[in-house]
Specification:
The complex is a heterodimer. By secondary structure, chain A is α/β, with parallel strands linked by helices. Chain A has 14 helices and 8 strands. The longest helix of chain B is centred in the middle third of the chain and has 17 residues. Chain B is mostly helical. The chains are: A alpha/beta, B mainly alpha.
Chain lengths: 281, 190
């Protein structure tokens, strides 16, 4: 199985443990990630905040390069990149006039047969939990996690088409398959503050503080995320010392992948004490 | 809502082309809003906004162009899309906020939340230079533009740098000419 893969700008920088663990876990699952040729930045929040046309054309160039690979799925790990690509896909599919403008600027012909999928969606719904289950060597017994989706994966549901926007369950199902215990809580789709972290750190500390205290109240020992910016905000802006994992890292741990020590080293809050206390070190 | 009416808001005083213009730019049907306030109730940054989301829509309906485009509220929206997902009239306020920011900058309105605007500018310029964002030079550019020394983030930023999570050297797109052309075409059309 081969899929087109858009790593995004942070895959080799601020969320490198997400990128590294994704590559390792997919190697174990026997799914080849084919990096999109000469990919560019999706434009992030800054671009749609100031220039709508540019916010459609930058993702459109990524889509055009992915179409060149001839593969039918474009897989995106970062929730922010996923959201921008899906928004562009939505316009390309539903607005003929705007599609023509974007196609002309970027210089390509859109083909709707390419499916743009979030990494989490591919793992849970395409590869499937049965295949994940087969690879589990060390079930994550005793680990209580709060699955945190944030905004971009589930909203707007008309655009992302991923799970329930108020109470998604994909990550919980994955965690149960890995042997961990997801807690029930009501802050899983609340916003972490996104890039306000860079201009109003104190506001983001309040937003993150609320999310984390609710996770702790629900009995969680750690948070699981699928977004680089969420992970960074949750880890950087807290005083509780709660580890914040990417879901791929916990897959790697359950698959007993050796490289995991390299991922833990990248965390601001080391997950080692928690994992050792549960005999999962 | 009280403070809004104290300004003496009366029908016939506002700029009534504003509603139509915002509708056209955003594609959102703001005339459908019946002030249920679900948007404001769920908005995570509403506590920090000078005008709340539902008030902003009412003010657009009343043609209060200057106050809307000059508000800090339009810059505090982080596009989390909670409002747009919950709105009973399917008004996507995130899309509306994007359109309002673009209009404010396009009309040369004095931006109330300068730092947020400058961070977005610095980000876009970083992508323009290399086709991919490079955190270190982007943040240096932001600090120089805004004179904001990012005291809240400095300590953690240094830790992330020491962990090798902010590479010193940028990664560039090979076909930089393609990126340059896209930027040129998209900024000309504004």
């Amino acid at each position: 199985m081969r899929v087109s893969y858009f790593p995004g700008c942070t895959d080799r920088s601020s969320s490198m443990e997400y990128g590294l663990s994704t590559e390792e876990v997919f190697r174990v699952l026997g799914v080849e990630l084919v990096e999109v040729e000469d990919w560019n930045c999706c434009g992030a929040a800054a671009t749609h905040s100031l220039n709508r046309l540019l916010s459609l054309c930058l993702p459109a160039r990524i889509i055009s390069k992915a179409l060149g690979s001839g593969l039918s799925w474009l897989v995106v790990p970062c929730a922010g990149c996923f959201s921008n690509l899906k928004k562009t896909e939505y316009v390309l599919r539903n607005d003929e006039k705007e599609r023509r403008v974007v196609e002309e600027i970027v210089g390509f012909r859109y083909d709707p047969s390419l499916e743009i999928l979030a990494l989490l969606d591919v793992v849970v719904n395409r590869i499937g939990l049965d295949r994940i289950d087969e690879r589990v060597k060390r079930p994550l017994k005793g680990l209580k996690v709060a699955c945190y989706y944030g905004c971009a994966l589930v909203r707007h549901p008309k655009v992302t088409g991923f799970d329930d926007p108020e109470n998604p369950q994909a990550m919980e199902r994955l965690m149960r398959t890995l042997g961990a215990q997801p807690v029930e809580w009501s802050y899983k789709v609340d916003c972490c503050g996104a890039d306000l972290a860079m201009t109003y750190g104190s506001i983001v500390s309040q937003m993150v503080g609320r999310i984390l205290s609710m996770a702790v109240e629900a009995g969680a020992q750690a948070i699981v995320t699928s977004c680089g910016l969420c992970q960074m905000n949750l880890e950087m802006r807290q005083e509780l010392g709660l580890p914040v994992f990417y879901f791929t890292e916990l897959m790697g741990l359950a698959f007993d992948v050796e490289q995991r020590e390299r991922w833990w080293a990248k965390h601001l809050i080391s997950p080692r004490p928690l994992l050792e206390s549960l005999g999962l070190g | 809502m009280k403070e809004m009416w104290e300004g003496g808001l009366r029908l016939g005083e506002g700029d009534f082309s504003f509603l139509e213009e915002v509708r056209r730019r955003s594609g959102e049907h703001l005339d459908l809003c019946y002030q249920c306030m679900k948007c404001t109730a769920g908005c995570p940054t509403a506590p920090y906004m000078d005008i709340k989301p539902h008030q902003l829509i009412r003010m657009i309906q009343m043609g209060r162009r200057g106050e809307v485009l000059g508000s800090g509220a339009i810059w505090f929206c982080v596009y989390c899309q909670t409002c747009g997902t919950r709105c009973p009239n399917e008004i996507h306020i995130g899309v509306l906020m994007d359109a309002l920011r673009e209009m404010a900058v396009g009309e040369g309105v004095e931006v109330k939340e300068r730092r947020i605007h400058l961070l977005h500018e610095a980000f876009i310029q970083s992508v323009r230079r290399g086709g991919r964002v490079h955190e270190v030079t982007m943040l240096m550019d932001y600090v120089l533009r805004s004179r904001d020394l990012m005291k809240d983030s400095l300590g953690s930023g240094v830790k992330l740098f020491l962990k090798g999570k902010f590479p010193l050297f940028p990664s560039f797109v090979k076909e930089r000419e393609e990126i340059r052309r896209i930027f040129e075409r998209c900024t000309k059309k504004q």
